[in-house]
């Protein structure tokens, strides 16, 4: 597959501006980003949604570009099915520049993929006799419009001199009324004021997240990494998410993402 011909505009992806600054970030050591690209795209119709064109560039490139171009991200660990590794690497090497692009095999669940990625990060630094990063960001590659401002908010909460957190997640307040159901019947209405909708990238103390995955009894049931941290009794902080940072799940989502990207809302 000649990806340069298929997506000629890959190299034209503009670096997003950092629109959110914080004094805490000025002394923050660069951290790696773990980019999860192991989904089966079942609800998308079994086509590979990460290669779907979003305004001329693959969805995967939009996601990776935000991290490669961020000054406090040291590199990207891409977790993907082995059969896609060469294709994805060919795409992302055009964007990586001097930062390392490493790969790890995806697992049969999200949690297993994260565990594999963390192990690969640790092994890479041990083999290079380099200090282990203190923190790591975990991001779903299917969220292509992640912004530098959102990354900054997560990093700042991890680094905050007054109240550093071991785990930080971006989230949005729930606007709709939420009800729990059983079959065709409503069971109860949940208190909207105490609910948020969670996004990625999620930030963690690397050792804490690694320990959470090693200790988890049923990690395959976790829908995000913060859930495993919660199970350890460790507080998880949330910061403001981004309405444009939606996850590509169905073709309708791609049309919405294209509108956001076209309107320069990221």
Brief characterization of the structure:
By secondary structure, the protein is of the alpha/beta class. It has eight helices and twelve strands. 33% of the residues lie in helices and 21% in strands.
Q: Would you give an account of this structure?
A:
The protein has 266 residues and is of the alpha/beta class. Helices cover 33% and strands 21% of the residues. The chain has helices at residues 3-6, 59-68, 82-96, 110-127, 148-159, 206-215, 225-231, 251-262; strands at 31-36, 53-54, 57-58, 73-80, 101-105, 135-140, 167-173, 179-182, 185-189, 196-198, 202-205, 237-240. Helix 2 (59-68) packs across helix 3, helix 4 packs across helix 6 (206-215) and helix 6 (206-215) packs across helix 7. The longest helix has 18 residues, at 110-127. The chain is globular and about 55 Å long.
Supply database-style keywords.
single chain, 266 residues, alpha/beta, 33% helix, 8-stranded mixed β-sheet, two-stranded antiparallel sheet
